[in-house]
Amino acid sequence: MGVKFGLYLKLSLFLHVGWLFSNSTVFFVISCYFSFQKKVADSPDAILRNGLNNRYRVLEVSVIQRNGSDPEKHLAITASPSLEDRELCILRNGWESVPVVPGDIVHLEGQCSSGTWVINAQSGYLVLYPDLLLSGTTISSSIRCMRRAVLSERFRGSESGSPQMLVGTILHDIFQQSITNDLTQEKVQELANKIVYGQKYLKEMYLLNMKQAQIMQEIEEYLPSFFKWAEDFMHNPANQNKMQLKLSNGGKPEDVSSKIEVVDILDIEENIWSPRFGLKGKIDVTARVKIHCQSGAQSRVMPLELKSGKESNSIEHRSQVILYTLLSLERRADPEAGFLLYLKTGTMYPVSGARMDRRELMKLRNHVAFYLTHSTYKSDVGRQNSQLAALPPVIDDSQTCKYCSQMHNCFLYSRAVEQKMASVAFPPALVPVIDRETQHLKPSHLEYFSLWYLIFLTCEVLFLIKAGDCVGNMIRVDEVHEVSEGQYLHFFQRRNGAISGTNLLVGDRVVVSGEEKGLLGLATGYVREVSGTKVSCLLGRNLSNLPKNTVFRLDHDEGDVGTGVPFKNLSKLMKDCPVSERLRNLIIDFQKPCFIQHLSSVLPPEAKETVANILKGLNKPQKQAMKQVLLSKDYTLIVGMPGTGKTTTICALVRILSACGFSVLLTSFTHTAVDNVLLKLAKFKKVHPDIQKYTEEEICRSRSIKSVTDLEEVYNSQPVVATSCMGVNHPIFAQKQFDFCIVDEASQISQLVCLGPLFCSKRFVLVGDHQQLPPLVLNAEARDLGMSESLFKRLEQNQNAVVQLTVQYRMNSKIMSLSNMLVYEGKLECGSEKVSNATVNLPNLKKLKLDLGDASKSWLKEVLDPDTPVCFLNTEKAGCKPSDIGIISPYRHQLKTITDLMAKWKENRVEVNTVDKYQGRDKSIIIVSFVRNSIDENLGSLLKDWRRLNVAITRAKHKLVMVGCVPSLCCYPPLEKLLCHLQSQAMISFFSIIHKCNIL
DNA sequence: GCTCTGCAAAGAGGA
Fold first, then answer.
1. Interval A179-206: pLDDT, tens
2. Are A65 and A49 in contact (CB under 8 A)?
3. Cα angle vertex A874, ends A872, A880, to 5°?
4. Which residues form the DNA replication factor Dna2 N-terminal domain (predicted)?
C-alpha cells in the first residue's frame, strides 16, 4: 500500500488589501489606511482575556522590512478592557501575511515570554476573529479557490445536490450505522435496504429525480469494500500492509511503519465547535485506534473521514482530516493524525496532523475569515456609507472554473461590483466569459443586485457564539427517547434554582453544550417543555453516551437566520432563465402588469355556479378583487385596510381559483398567518378542521409513502399548497409550477424574502397594507439603504394592479373615522349599520356607576359610557403616572409594568401587548397607553411612525380609550393630527388619579 | 432611543 508521508501544503495565498510592502525601502512602517467594518471588533460580546483561551485586541499594526531579511509584522496587543497592559506579537515566516488590522480580535497559541509573543514557522498560531467558526469543508475548499469558499458561505444552499452526493450521504449513513452495530454481511444488507427503501431520503431522491432501485444498485457495489475494510482494520489487522505513521511518542525516529487496528467506535458525526482555532465541523467517525509498531502498541482516539468518491488522497481530503485533528483538541489529547477511509475500495490512508500543515491551514482560515468579515468597507472619512469590497481574486484556471457550482454568483459579483473597481484585475481569458455569462442583465439589474447584496451584508450575523440567554447547571435525567429517526427527546434538570421563564420558551431553538471547556455545541434542537426546574428538548443527537455527571448548559440559538434565503433569492433573480427574466422586468424595471379583457376566457363554464356561490358571501370591493385577480396576467395587489376581511378574501380567492382548475401556492412570512387562512379554508373542505392533517409529513405518514413515485403522486395531487416564505426550499417547489401564488402579510415581508415563492408561480397576488407596519429592520444602515421597502410597497406605484378592500367589519364608525382622517382619506367605510353603531356591552355598568358617585371620578363615568366609543384621556393636569392604565402600548417596558400591576390584582385575562404585536388582530375594547409625559426630552422614533399609530387606533371594535399627555404627544406629527381631530370632536377628557383598575 | 419574525447544518462528490 503506497502511503505518502507528511504532505506539506504549499499554498500560495493571495492578499489584495492595501498594505503590501515594497521591498526597495530600507525600513518603514505603514499604518493601515483602509477603514474596514469590523463586525467582531465592534461587537460588545468580544470579551478580552488572558490565559489558555486568550482574546487580544490589536491596537497597532506595523510592517517591518529590513534590507536582506524577511519581512515581519509587529502587533501591539492588549487583553485588558481598558486597553492598557500592552503586549507585543511578532509575526514571521509567512505569518506576516495575515491580514490583521487595528481593532481586530485575535487568539494566540504558543509561547509568550515577558510580554512578547512570537508566531513563526516552528511555533505558535494566530487565529483571526476566533469567534467566527469556519467549517472544515469551507477551509479545505478554499485551497483551490478561496473565492468559491466565500461565495458558498454567503449563498448557502444555492448549490443543488448531485446524484453522487446523495449516494455519498446514504453510504456514510449505512457505514456509520454498521460499524457502531454490526458489520456482518447480512445485517449490512438489511440496513442498506431499510435506509434506501425507507422515508429518510425520499425527498432528496424526488428532487434529483432518482429511483430507489437505481440508488440501491450503486450502494451494493460498495458493500464488499465495507467488509474488506472491517477485515483489514478491525478483525485481522495482522494481514494488513504496514503504513507510515509517525506519532510524537512513537519510540525511535525511524520506527514509523505500523499496523492500524480500530478497536472501538466512540462517536458518529461528532459535532465540535472550537473557539480556540475558530473552527467547527462534524467528524464522520471518532474511533479508538491501536497503532502497532515494532517498539510496541499505543492507543489514540482519532478522527476517521469517510469518502465515497474517487480514491484521490488529495490535498483537500487530507486537509479536512488535519482540521479535524485540531478540532479533536477541544475534546481530548492531540490525536496527531487521523485517517481517510475510501469506501469504494476499503482503503485507509493515515494523515498526519503535522505542525506545518496545521499552520498553513490556519493561515488559510484567517484569510477566509478576513474576507467574510470585510465584505464591505467605508472608503472615505467624510462619507460614511458602506461599499461592497472585492471578493478573493478570480483564479486563473479555466478547468476548475468550468465545473464550479458558484460560477453564476462569481461572474455576477464580478460584473455588478468588481468590474468598476480599478484595483481588481481578472484573468484576461475570463473577461469575455464573464461578459457573456452576464449579458442578459441590464444595468438596472446589476444595480439592484449590488444594492440588495449590500443591504443584506450590513445586517448579516457571522458569529455563532454570543453571550445570550443561557440556562446552565443542568444534568440529564431519565432515558433518552428516539422519537423519530434522528430525533432524540432528552430531559434536563436544573441542579439548583428554577428556570426563569423568560430564558427558554417552548419551541425555541437551543444549543446544548457541556459546561466543561471543549464541550461546546454538543447538539442542537428545540425546546419541547419547560416546567419549574426541568426542560425537555428534542435534539438531533443522542447524548446518553456522555458521562452521567456531565453538566450541561442550554443556550438560546438565534443562529444566522434569514440571510441565506435572501441571498439565494437574489442570485436566482439574476439567472438567465424565463422565470427570472419575467420577475426582473416586473420587479426591477416596473414593467406594467397586464390584464386580460374578459372573464369568460378564464372562467370554465362548469365552475360558474360554484364561483357565483362563493361570490355571494362577499362585498363589492372583495368581489372586485376576485375579478381583478382572475383577469391578471402578472400580478395583483390587494390593499387590506384594517378589519376589511383579508382572511375571508384570501379564502374566497383560493376557493375560486381552485374551482377554476388553477393550482395555488399560499404563503405568508409567519406560520401563524398561514395557519389562520388554512383553518378558515378547512371549514369548506369538510374534513376534520385540524390543519395538522394537511401537513406534508402527515399526508406521507397516513398514506404510508415509501417510494419516490408515491411521493411524486402526493405532490402532484395537491392543488393548494401552503407554506411560509422561508419554507419554499422544500423539494416540492423545485419541480412544481403553480398557476397563482398568494402572499399574505406582504407589506411586512422583506423584498427578497417575498421573492422566494414567486419563482414557482405564473402569477402572484400580494395582500397587505403599506399604511400598517413595514418589515422589521433592526440595522439602521440597512434601513437607510431601503431595506424596509416591501415588494408590496415597491409595486404599488403601478396603480392599475391595485384593488382596495375598503369595507370593514371591525370598528364602529367613530373609531373608524380616526383612521380615515389620519391615513385613508375617507375611503374606509363600515360594512353594515350594525358594525357602524356597535357599542360595548358592560353588564355591570349600572352598579358600577353608583359606586362611582364621587365627583372626582366623574371622568371615569364618561370613559365607561358605551355611547362614547372614542375617548382620549388627557393626563396632563392629573399628574397621573401613565403606567397606571394600559392595554396596548408602543413600549415594552410599559407593558411589563402594566402586566406586573395586573398580576398584583390577580387580573390575567386582559391581554397586554405591543402595538407591533397587535397588528392583524382586534378586541372589543382597546386601551392605548402612549406613555410619553414630558416635552423637553428627546423624541422617540416609535411614535413618529404614521403606520404604527394607524395600527394602534384600528384594533378596537367598540371602544377605543387612549391615554396620554396631550401637550407631550403633540410633538409628534401623527399624534398632533389625531389630537387636533379629537379636540374638534370633543373626545378628550381629563382624569384624576385612580387607584383600582379591575373594573373592566 | 429601545418596536422584534424568520430557520438545521456541515458535507454529500466532481475536475
1. 998 888 999 999 999 999 988 898 889 8
2. no
3. 130
4. 84-289
Three-state DSSP class for residue A951: helix
Neighbours of A257 (CB within 10 A): 14
What's the grid cell of residue A929? 397607553
Q: In DSSP terms, which residues pair with A350 in a beta bridge?
A: A339
Contact A757, A725 (CB under 8 A): yes
pLDDT of residue A875: 65
For residue A944, give the nucleotide whose C1' atom is nearest its CA. B3
According to DSSP, residue A335 is labeled -
How many other C-beta atoms can be found within 10 angstroms of the C-beta atom of residue A820? Answer: 19
pLDDT of res. A884: 43
Tell me the C-alpha distance between A529 and A539, whole Å. 13
Contact A798, A593 (CB under 8 A): yes
pLDDT at A463: 66
Regarding beta strands A279-293 and A134-135, do their DSSP bridges make them parallel or antiparallel, or are they unpaired? parallel
The strand pair at A888-889 and A913-914 is best described as parallel
* CA A325/CA A302 separation, integer angstroms: 7
- How far, in Å, is the CA of A119 from the C1' of nucleotide B9? 34
Task: Give the nucleotide with minimal C1' distance to the Cα of A673.
Answer: B5
In the three-class reduction of DSSP (H, G, I as helix; E, B as strand; rest coil), residue A995 is classed as: coil
DSSP for A228-281, please give it: HHHIIIII-GGGSPPEE---TTSSSTT--EEEEEEEEEEEEEEEEEETTTTEEE
Q: What pLDDT does A377 receive? A: 86
Nearest to A991 by CA among A907, A898, A882, A901: A882
If residue A682 lies in a helix (H) or strand (E), which one and from where to where?
helix A671-685
Q: Report the candidate in A285, A282, A245 with the shortest Cα–Cα distance to residue A264.
A: A285
Cell of A314: 488529495
Please tell me whether residue A493 adopts helix, strand or coil conformation.
strand
Contact A283, A137 (CB under 8 A): no
Cell of A547: 458521562
pTM for the predicted model, two decimal places: 0.88
pLDDT recorded at residue A246: 81
Give burial (CB, 10 Å; 0-12/13-18/19+) of A547.
exposed
Q: Which residue is nearest to nucleotide B12 (CA to C1')?
A: A165
Q: CA A652, CA A645: separation in Å to the nearest integer?
A: 11
Output the nine-digit C-alpha cell for A819.
383612521
CA of A151 to C1' of B7 (A): 20
Compute the radius of gyration of chain A from its Cα atoms: 33
| Type of residue numbered A278 | G
A175 Rama class: left (phi>0) / alpha (psi -120 to 50) / beta: alpha
Q: Which residue is nearest to nucleotide B15 (CA to C1')?
A: A400
CB–CB of A88/A57 below 8 Å?
no
Residue A110, strand partner residues:
none
**CB A11, CB A364: distance < 8 Å:** yes
- Residues whose CB is less than 8 angstroms from the CB of residue A613 and which lie 6 or more positions away in sequence, other chains included: none
Q: What is the pLDDT of residue A834?
A: 92
| Helix residue ranges, H only, A751-832 | 751-758, 780-784, 791-795, 813-819
**CA-to-C1' span, A364 to B7 (A):** 29
Q: Is the separation of the CB atoms in A303 and A338 below 8 Å?
A: yes
* Residue where the block lists cell 481588481: A424
* Residue A568 DSSP SS3: helix
Q: Which residue numbers in chain A have pLDDT < 50?
A: 1-45, 685-690, 879-886, 993-1000
Distance CA A98, CA A85 (A): 23
Residue A394 CA distance to nucleotide B15 C1' (Å) = 17
The β-bridge relationship of strands A296-307 and A337-342 is: parallel
Helix (H, G, I), strand (E, B) or coil at A565: helix
